[in-house]
């Protein structure tokens, strides 16, 4: 049967069946395989052994991405790698400390060598601490800034050459609602997270014309192991945290933050760069 007869007979069959042609075409589209957002993409994640990073690693893999991720806790990292593979995804854990240049360079190179390229980087590793400025030790100050700022700088330093070679890509940095508005006792933490805004904005201008978008995810209160440690896993403190969220009156899940990260890292928002997405359940809307 030639192409014209095939098309004519196909259209006639739809009409005989009593289906509008548009419905018949829609049915064919519905049966077509759905292309996942990160199919064939290579993603690097720092700080993915728990919390938002873990949720993101699982979500990227579910969306077809090949995920290379790091963290310092090897046992937890291997568990996340196992979870990714159990759900039918592709991922590898590589132990690395974001504050160490040699470890970060090696981590990035190993992921690229394994999967052949780099498309997306989600630089999520971070720490949190609170205390009045004059009571913070120099060691504490340097620890929080080394992890939250130096660690992101090192990750980007070694990721960008691969993104340039790839002809573009996306970088997402995890900051915090403290980069927008903060609370007493957060001098070290808030200053480290606000530094990421300047880093992202400058890098977005430096690399935008090379096809690289760079944005910041600023989470509100999120139910992660880090949050639970900071509250002493106190039910009362968790309830107090919920009350602070003026809009939704609940704290976020790690999976909700991961979805926001995937949005920024995807091609769903090709004109967004050099900005911060505040995902706080309406907390910053209140006075």
Automatic annotation (TrEMBL):
Q: Name one Pfam family in it.
A: adh_short_C2
Spell out the Gene3D superfamilies in the cross-references. NAD(P)-binding Rossmann-like Domain
Q: Is Nucleotidyltransferase one of the keywords?
A: no
- InterPro entries per UniProt: NAD(P)-bd_dom_sf, Sc_DH/Rdtase_CS, SDR_fam
- What domain of life does the native source organism fall in? Bacteria
Keywords, alphabetical:
Oxidoreductase, Signal
Q: One GO MF term, please?
A: oxidoreductase activity
- Signal recorded as keyword: yes
Where does the signal peptide begin and end?
1-27
Q: Which residues cross the membrane?
A: none
- Family from the record: Belongs to the short-chain dehydrogenases/reductases (SDR) family.
* Full protein name: SDR family oxidoreductase
């Amino acid at each position: 049967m030639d192409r014209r007869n095939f098309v004519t007979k196909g259209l006639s069959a739809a009409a005989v069946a009593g289906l509008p042609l548009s419905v018949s075409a829609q049915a064919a589209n519905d049966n077509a395989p759905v292309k996942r957002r990160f199919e064939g993409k290579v993603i690097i994640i720092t700080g993915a052994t728990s919390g938002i990073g873990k949720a993101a690693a699982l979500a990227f893999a579910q969306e077809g991405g090949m995920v290379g991720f790091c963290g310092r806790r090897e046992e937890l990292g291997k568990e996340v790698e196992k979870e990714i593979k159990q759900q039918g995804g592709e991922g590898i854990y590589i132990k690395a400390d974001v504050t160490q240049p040699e470890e970060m360079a090696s981590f990035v190179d190993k992921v690229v060598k394994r999967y052949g390229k780099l498309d997306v980087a989600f630089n999520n590793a971070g720490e949190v601490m609170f205390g009045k400025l004059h009571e913070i030790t120099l060691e504490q100050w340097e620890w929080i800034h080394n992890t939250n700022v130096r660690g992101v700088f090192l990750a980007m330093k070694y990721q960008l050459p691969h993104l340039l070679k790839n002809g573009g890509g996306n970088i997402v940095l995890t900051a915090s609602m403290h980069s927008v508005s903060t609370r007493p006792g957060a001098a070290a933490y808030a200053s480290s997270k606000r530094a990421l805004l300047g880093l992202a904005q400058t890098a977005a201008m430096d690399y935008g014309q090379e096809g690289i978008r760079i944005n910041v995810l600023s989470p509100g209160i999120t139910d992660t192991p880090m949050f639970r440690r900071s509250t002493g896993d106190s039910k009362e403190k968790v309830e107090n945290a919920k009350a602070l969220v003026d809009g939704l009156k609940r704290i976020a899940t790690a999976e909700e933050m991961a979805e926001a990260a995937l949005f920024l890292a995807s091609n769903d928002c090709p004109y967004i760069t050099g900005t911060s997405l505040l995902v706080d359940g309406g907390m910053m809307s209140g006075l």
